Amino acid sequence: MNSVIENLLNDQVKYEASASMQYLAMASWADVKGYSGVAEFFYAQSEEERVHMTKLVKFINERSGKVIVPQLEKPQGEFKTLIELFESFLKSEMFVTEQINHVIYECLQHKDYNVHNFMQWYVTEQLEEESLARTLLDKLTIIGDDKSGHYLFDRDIISIAAANNQE
Ligand code: FEO
Question: What is the CATH superfamily name and number for domain 3-166?
Answer without folding.
Answer: Ferritin, core subunit, four-helix bundle (1.20.1260.10)
